[in-house]
Backbone:
């Protein structure tokens, strides 16, 4: 049985979060009563004309620059013609042969180290409306149409067929999402549909030059379904070939419930979109100075930031990657480090306790009640020996739920570490008096007995005694 | 002369002198509509109340001593493919026979602001596709000079209304000659402005890269006054040009001395009715006698204009008209089994034959495998046609030609032969492909039917066009003839 190689290319649709739609002034706000976020233009009434929202072009350029694309000097909009009732004009304004950007790439981490995945193109287009069926699409007696989403700006990002496994595809999307989130042009919420994905997938015997026949899987709306559907499709294709069958070029849909991909339409039934340049929109000449301005306004992106964390803060690459995965988390980290310059300790707390509490309470870092400065003060208290590490964990949880600062919690609950020698000596004397047996054991050379005595002192001090001092004083006394 | 046959600028003076009121004027025009409309059939919708309301408002302004703008209170007809808020707008099609837009076209807003009294919405070939107004889904409009003949098209209702005294001036739209050709057939002035000079917002699109709204009027002065209202940038139309609005009446000087006119041989060749040619030659001589330099020249790609147009316009139309599917507005077939069936039945019932013909033509031209050979090629030839004009305008200030190869033809004469019908636009189509301005002015008669003289100018050089047209008009009296009804 030959070894097969998987070849995947992804088409990602990302909704841009401009305030108004791509060709009119209607709001892009999510939700709203059906057909309330509309106007004659996005409803495609007779005689209306689209006017491009400059912010959309700016956001598209911003995303494209973050994905290392070349920005076109000359770009235009085209009409993609096909009939569907969720499309007000029965054509979608999109970009065909002169997209706003081309030739980009992003880097993913694979088993064999980092790899660059090519981005063929990035173009702008308008979203469609939404059909509301009674029951299923085949049995509904009528359908309703909501055009609130019609005309919401999208960018479509098409990758080269450079991905070699479903896992790489997942990584690509995760990385894309991280980068776009950094640029601030989209929320990239897969569950709300502001990030959608179609996949082209084929397999070929290892070492083969050309590409196998591909299928396209539509509408993968979670990381999980992406991974599962692609894995299923790889297996299905290999199985088909192994059984002597042949792959049919077709569009398939992912059935989440059954866990299978199903045929939607074959290439023979594929649409002829009859693209034509939209005569209502004048071609755009993209001002280089404008592009430079946008480039300058880009924040430091995940890859650069990660590198800097390794160099500047001496963090392990693993820590750096996790911390820089979202801009918000990285910003949090940096505010913290500024206030308490112990990067590794800060990193440990963020990646450990903070992440654990955020996950278990389903919160985002942006909603976290612990201000980064407060986390820094907590770490200062630990490093200065004001509180013990064990108590710090309790204080931290208290901070997480109440949002109060570390000092006031420590003060209120009397959690200050006891570092006063005379106070500790008093407890030590008491413990020694109460435990003649272990004392004798220690004196007889049983080193382990010391551990027991330290424990007793800590217990008597309710955990507040400075453990190092307890150790030292016990030895002296004995 | 009766009030309804006077020009807007004369009527304005009469109103300012308080010799007539705007309300009296509207009444005169509506009385005329009442008596003439049975014979002409210019209007799909009359907006009587709106006109009188407007007229009375203008009268109050005059009474209170306010100065009124030139077209205030002037009865205006609007082609029914131009959207009017709250007023039925059909584009001459059954598919939009119940469509009431919730917004007005920019030109309508501008005329509203100028105080014009809209009297009604005029008949047209369905979606402006045609040259005789016979393709209207509703009824045929007749030529006021001879009611057995067509008024031309597609702005036939607007041209007939102005010629018959059912409106003082009118708005039309011109995609391949749809203002100039009916103006010529009905003996009025009609102008297609430079592409981008007038906002298309609210004009129901036929072929977006060619469509342009323009005036139909009794004389060149009225035409200039209307241009003053409609021209200028509109932020709702990306294709509307950023340029300084100007007072076009400033160009109305009786002087063509030294002005150079080129007459493209191709526009005077075979296919042009010899009687029409003779009238044009007489007009050329008249201009020469006024000091102009008139020479024959050539636009070598002229023979490709018609086929180029019939690739580009239907291609754009096939996409522009896709939205009429019965989902959101207009009529909807009720007996459909599913959504695809609903689309097909609605469109089959809603569109007329000529519209279907052009949708099919355009769909074919854009289809995979044909795009390069047809649509793309047509775009390239369009560039060559533009370059012909650029070259000619290096030498000439204006180009001159007949508007149409013949005078108005008989109703029904060409309805069975689309190609013959298409040929009646052979002299006007290139102007749209090149995006330049063109005007039709009355220049004579053949067998009692008006002949139009076409002048074509450089991009945004409507001024020179108007000056030449005005000079010709001042030195002739063809515009003073009126049809007997
Ligand atoms: Zn809108």
Residues:
């Amino acid at each position: 049985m030959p070894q097969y190689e998987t070849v995947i290319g992804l088409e990602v649709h990302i909704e841009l979060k401009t305030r108004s739609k791509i060709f009119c002034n209607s709001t892009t706000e999510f939700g709203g009563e059906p057909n309330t976020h509309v106007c004659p233009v996005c409803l495609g009434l007779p005689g209306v004309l689209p006017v491009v929202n400059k912010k959309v072009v700016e956001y598209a350029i911003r995303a494209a620059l973050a994905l290392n694309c070349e920005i076109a000097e000359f770009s235009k909009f085209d009409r993609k013609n096909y009939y569907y009732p969720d499309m007000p004009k029965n054509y979608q304004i999109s970009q065909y042969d002169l997209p706003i950007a081309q030739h980009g790439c992003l880097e993913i981490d694979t088993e064999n180290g980092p790899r660059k995945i090519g981005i063929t193109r990035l173009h702008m287009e308008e979203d469609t409306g939404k059909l509301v069926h009674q029951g299923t699409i085949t049995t509904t007696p009528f359908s309703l149409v909501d055009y609130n989403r019609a005309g919401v700006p999208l960018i479509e990002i098409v990758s080269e067929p450079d991905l070699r496994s479903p896992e790489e595809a997942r990584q690509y999307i995760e990385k894309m999402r991280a980068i776009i989130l950094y640029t601030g042009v989209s929320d990239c919420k897969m569950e709300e549909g502001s990030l959608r994905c179609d996949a082209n997938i084929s397999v070929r015997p290892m070492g083969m030059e050309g590409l196998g026949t591909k299928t396209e899987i539509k509408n993968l709306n979670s990381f999980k379904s992406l991974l599962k559907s692609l894995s299923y499709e790889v297996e299905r294709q290999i199985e088909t070939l192994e059984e002597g069958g042949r792959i049919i070029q077709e569009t398939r849909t992912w059935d989440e419930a059954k866990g299978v991909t199903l045929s939607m339409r074959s290439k023979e039934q594929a649409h002829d979109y009859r693209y034509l340049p939209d005569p209502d929109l004048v071609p755009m000449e993209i001002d280089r100075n404008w592009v430079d301005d946008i480039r300058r306004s880009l924040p430091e992106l995940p890859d650069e930031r990660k590198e800097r964390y390794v160099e500047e803060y001496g963090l392990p690459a693993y820590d750096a990657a996790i911390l820089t995965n979202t801009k918000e988390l990285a910003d949090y980290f940096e505010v913290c480090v500024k206030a308490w310059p112990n990067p590794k300790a800060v990193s440990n707390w963020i990646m450990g306790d903070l992440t654990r509490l955020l996950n278990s309470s389903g919160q985002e870092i942006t909603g976290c009640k612990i201000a980064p400065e407060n986390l820094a003060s907590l770490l200062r208290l630990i490093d200065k020996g004001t509180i013990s590490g064990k108590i710090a964990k309790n204080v931290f949880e208290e901070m997480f739920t109440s949002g109060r600062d570390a000092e006031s919690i420590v003060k209120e609950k009397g959690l200050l570490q006891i570092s006063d020698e005379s106070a500790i000596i008093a407890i030590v004397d008491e413990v020694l008096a109460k435990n003649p047996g272990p004392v004798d054991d220690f004196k007889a050379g049983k080193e382990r007995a010391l551990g027991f005595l330290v424990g007793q002192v800590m217990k008597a001090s309710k955990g507040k005694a400075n453990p190092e001092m307890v150790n030292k004083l016990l030895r002296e006394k004995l | 002369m009766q009030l309804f046959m006077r020009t807007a600028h004369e009527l304005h003076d009469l109103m300012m002198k308080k010799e007539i009121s705007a309300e009296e004027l509207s009444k005169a025009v509506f009385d005329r509509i009442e008596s003439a409309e049975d014979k002409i059939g210019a209007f799909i919708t009359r907006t009587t109340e709106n006109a009188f309301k407007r007229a009375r408002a203008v009268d109050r302004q005059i009474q209170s001593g306010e100065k009124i703008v030139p077209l205030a209170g002037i009865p205006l007809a609007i082609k029914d493919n131009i959207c009017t808020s709250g007023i039925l707008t059909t584009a001459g099609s059954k598919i939009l026979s119940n469509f009431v837009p919730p917004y007005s076209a920019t030109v309508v807003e501008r005329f509203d602001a100028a105080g014009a009294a809209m009297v009604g919405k005029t008949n047209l070939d369905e979606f402006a596709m045609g040259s005789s107004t016979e393709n209207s889904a509703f009824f045929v409009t007749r030529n006021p000079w001879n009611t057995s003949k067509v008024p031309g098209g597609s702005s036939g209702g607007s041209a007939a209304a102005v010629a018959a005294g059912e409106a003082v001036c009118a708005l039309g739209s011109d995609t391949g000659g749809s203002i100039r050709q009916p103006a010529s057939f009905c003996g009025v002035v009609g102008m297609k402005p430079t592409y981008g000079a007038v906002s298309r917002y609210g004009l129901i699109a036929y072929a977006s890269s060619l469509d342009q709204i323009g005036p139909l009027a009794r004389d060149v002065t009225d035409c200039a006054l209307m241009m003053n209202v409609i021209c200028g940038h509109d932020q709702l139309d990306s294709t509307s040009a950023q340029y300084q609005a100007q007072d076009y009446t400033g160009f109305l000087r009786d002087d063509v001395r030294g002005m150079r006119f080129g007459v493209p041989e191709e526009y005077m060749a075979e296919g042009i009715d010899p009687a029409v040619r003779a009238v044009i030659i007489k007009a050329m001589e008249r201009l020469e006698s006024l000091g102009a330099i008139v020479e024959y020249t050539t636009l070598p790609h002229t023979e490709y204009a018609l086929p180029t147009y019939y690739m580009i316009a239907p291609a754009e139309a096939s996409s522009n008209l896709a939205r009429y599917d019965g989902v959101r507005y207009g009529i909807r077939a009720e007996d459909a089994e599913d959504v695809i069936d609903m689309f097909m039945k609605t469109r089959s019932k809603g569109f007329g034959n000529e519209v279907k013909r052009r949708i099919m033509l355009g769909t074919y031209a854009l289809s995979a495998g044909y795009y390069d050979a047809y649509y793309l090629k047509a775009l390239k030839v369009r560039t060559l046609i533009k370059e012909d004009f650029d070259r000619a305008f290096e030498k000439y200030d204006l180009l001159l030609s007949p508007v149409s190869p013949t005078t108005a033809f008989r109703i029904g004469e060409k309805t069975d032969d689309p190609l013959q019908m298409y040929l009646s636009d052979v002299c006007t189509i290139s102007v749209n492909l090149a995006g330049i301005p063109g005007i039709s002015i009355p220049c004579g008669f053949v067998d009692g039917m008006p002949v139009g003289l076409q002048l074509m100018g450089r991009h945004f050089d409507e001024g020179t066009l108007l000056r030449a047209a005005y000079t010709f008009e001042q030195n002739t009296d063809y515009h003073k003839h009126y049809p007997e009804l």
User: Anything to note?
Assistant: Residues 437 and 461 of chain B are 7 Å apart (CA to CA). DSSP finds 15 helices and eleven strands in chain B. The pocket of zinc ion is lined by residues A 21, 24, 26, 38-39, 41-42, 151 (CB under 6 Å). Chain B has a mean pLDDT of 96.
